[in-house]
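Students often ask why inverse folding is considered easier than folding. One informal answer: many sequences map to the same fold, so there is more than one right answer. In these notes we will look at a single instance of the problem. The structure comes first.
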């Protein structure tokens, strides 16, 4: 599912600059987690986690991606 579709499904509303930051965090997290299939369940989980963190107020792509990685790696 494309990021915008997931944002809509999650009921998340962000400014355009926030969406760019969220997309950058998503890309960084995928790369660091070595997820290459953007249609995989893991990519979907990464996207949902990025959105949840962003909904909590964090917008810095580096901090968001680091939080995602910590959460998913346990």
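Output (designed amino acids):
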């Amino acid at each position: 599912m494309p990021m915008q579709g997931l944002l809509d499904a999650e009921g998340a509303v962000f400014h355009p600059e926030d969406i760019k930051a969220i997309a950058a965090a998503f890309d960084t997290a995928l790369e660091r987690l070595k997820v290459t299939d953007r249609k995989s369940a893991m990519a979907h989980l990464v996207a949902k986690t990025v959105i949840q963190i962003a909904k909590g107020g964090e917008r810095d792509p580096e901090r968001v991606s680091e939080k995602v990685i910590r959460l998913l790696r346990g």
